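> call design_seq(struct)
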């Protein structure tokens, strides 16, 4: 049987007690360990930053088509109109509209 070599790198940090308490509370609410919760949150945040920094490349023709689409009239999406009319969860009447 072949063995699989896992490469894991320790990461340590010092946090104020209040931050650790908040992380522990959130991890418990998700049913996760502190390590799993922090790892997932850090990777998600890193992915967001990388995606924001990425360039979108397109041909001049593709860009012209994109701008034409943006400049054209907006199409009404009935489901979005209905959703916008619903009260928010913190507004009176929310439970009655559900």
């Amino acid at each position: 049987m072949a063995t699989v070599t896992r490469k894991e790198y320790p990461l340590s940090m010092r946090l104020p007690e209040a931050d650790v308490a908040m992380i522990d509370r959130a991890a418990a609410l998700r049913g996760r360990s502190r390590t799993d919760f922090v790892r997932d949150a850090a990777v998600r945040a890193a992915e967001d930053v990388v995606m924001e920094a990425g360039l979108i490349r397109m041909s001049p023709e593709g860009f012209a088509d994109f701008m034409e689409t943006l400049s054209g009239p907006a199409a009404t999406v009935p489901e979005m109109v209905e959703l916008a009319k619903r009260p928010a969860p913190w507004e009176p009447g929310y439970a009655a509209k559900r």
